[in-house]
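Good day; I would like, with your permission, to put a structural problem before you. A protein sequence and the structure tokens that stand for its backbone fold form the material at issue. The record follows directly beneath this note:
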Amino acid sequence: MGFDVEREAYYRLLMLRKVEEAGIHVSDETVARVAGEFLRNFFRGQPVSMEIFEKNVLNRGGLTTLDFERYIRNLAGDPTVVQRSRPGGAVGHATGDAPAVRA
């Protein structure tokens, strides 16, 4: 079975609701750190500025930096995702250490 857009959308919306119900809030510092990890992984370890990412990736897809920030904040709040770098900078499934803060 390949990627199912409808199933993925349902899962993400369900997780967003669960995060909201649990009162989990992701700090700006965590968003910045996870975004940095994302960019390093996306560009295979090569340094890249947010401006270049915005111009060459986000804008081409009709997205903004605010869209990217919201995506990263939602990703970091998802309890099934690791919020810290593993060796090699990979982001994987939760191991119990989450920087999200409960209100």
User: Anything to note?
Assistant: Residues 5-22 form the longest helix (18 residues). DSSP finds four helices and two strands in the chain. The CA atoms of residues 82 and 92 lie 5 Å apart.
